[in-house]
Sequence to fold (666 residues):
Amino acid sequence: MKILITGGAGFVGSRLARALLARGTLDGHGIERLVLADQFAPADDISADRRVQVAVGPLLGQCDDVVGARFDGVFHLASAVSAECEADFDLGMRSNLETTRALLLALRAAGNSPRLVFASSGAVFGADPPFLPVPSLVEDHTLPTPQTSYGTQKLVSEQLIADFTRKGFLDGRAVRLLTVSVRPGRPNGAASGFLSGIVREPLAGIACACPVALDTPVALMSPTRAVDALIRAYEASRAELGGRSALILPALTLRVGEMLEALERVAGKAVRARVRLEPDARIEGIVSSWPAHFRAERAQRLGLGADASFESIIEAYIADHPEGVARSAGAAR
Amino acid sequence: MKILITGGAGFVGSRLARALLARGTLDGHGIERLVLADQFAPADDISADRRVQVAVGPLLGQCDDVVGARFDGVFHLASAVSAECEADFDLGMRSNLETTRALLLALRAAGNSPRLVFASSGAVFGADPPFLPVPSLVEDHTLPTPQTSYGTQKLVSEQLIADFTRKGFLDGRAVRLLTVSVRPGRPNGAASGFLSGIVREPLAGIACACPVALDTPVALMSPTRAVDALIRAYEASRAELGGRSALILPALTLRVGEMLEALERVAGKAVRARVRLEPDARIEGIVSSWPAHFRAERAQRLGLGADASFESIIEAYIADHPEGVARSAGAAR
Fold:
């Protein structure tokens, strides 16, 4: 079978690509071809696999090729991120709305009703004051009221995918990923960036600031759980999915202070001490507008669960990214 | 001030135009110019008003002119209808999604952050089995799960308007109109058509079929209430609106049999006898997927109410459309 991952060189896309290549099959069928479409080339270990084909460039320009390729399955992860879309409205409309629309029309034009998993986001939820406060508990039927252009574009894409699915043009499934932590790499300026940074930076021996109060609750998922959710959503039958509406996912809910306590338990007092409290009212405002508690019954019925603990997330990060861990961080282990 | 009505020659658009011309003001400002954009020309009594300017043609092609015109206010009613969008998917995507997007971008490009009222629809609601049944009661926070392309496109437009509003590009308000009854004119083949037809046709002396069981509950609003809601949504302050989410509206909920009883009380036994029961499983299926009960608290706080009775709706129809009433229909009055 032939699979496309849009955003296939990104953080989640790369992990998904590696997971699919390692499995070799998806929904019981062998993966003969894995096309990674992205603005950037994937990592060498991925592009070296003979099943992998790389398509570098803007996705919007690649949609004609998508028609011709007749994919059996698509993971649509490509997206401008939240902060980018707030800073550049036109970029978000083009990358997240126009591109999704063009991709859906191309998949319809291919005529083989491929399966599609869309990486939506918990950013579809928010407060719409004074009408709606931040939901104290997000459930499958909670009304999304996005408070960013990014969240709006994700919700709009979900709805288009549901309608294309109803019409039989494709077989779409949308999963709302939560903030993924721990992300490797450099700080990216996103408001959620510190939820990775306060672990990644001190582990690398770098001092960093925590911009919110320690009792702030947050909802997280590990990269592994994110990839698991995408694959499970792909392999679920329509009956298992139980409706065309987007799936929320189980969250690990904890306070930011508990994240730092977990860091201390895993990596030691000295590592944790590299995180200083430096409240930033702007970021506190944004983070407090995110719901922290999720009851994801439909996803749980698919066998998807939350991460067991933040310690396990940190340990997996250290195992996956030994290059990102200063020698001193291991001292406590 | 300068006002644009898209779909300004349609049934609701024409009534809105007449109402605005009769008032002469909107939100306390005199209406100097009323532009009616539509595929068709408006009725002569409307186009004869020296404040009216007519723009006939596809709205998508008129968006450049919208930029130049710098409207103070816009009522965006233009839309392909539900049945058309199901029969011709591309038409719906173009007329209801591309056109709304182009209009919003044109209004943003004009740079004066105009006020905009969008005629959305109760068709955003539906069942998504087995996840969600048809909502037994629709409230302001009920999750929309559209089951038609039309409903999807309306919901998507609502979300884009909310985000354009959040960004300050315009000041948007979306109201979800219910099935409007009694519509004049010929049967249009829409699944909801009989909700006007079973009054209009017998009043005109024409026999007609009622395709659903008499105990089927339906949610209706009169053309007058629809126009009232659009104007009130325009004139409401942001504080009164209480959030950017779309407004549901108060419904007159009654059973189809009660509609016929009202018809008999207003127009006599002989008129009612022109309606024969002829159940149509396809239409019964569609109509039973529409929610019938609404609790529209936000709209009620704006002073909007449901019609008092179906009799009053029929009486208003007869008064407004004497040409559509056969002489015999008056016999019982």
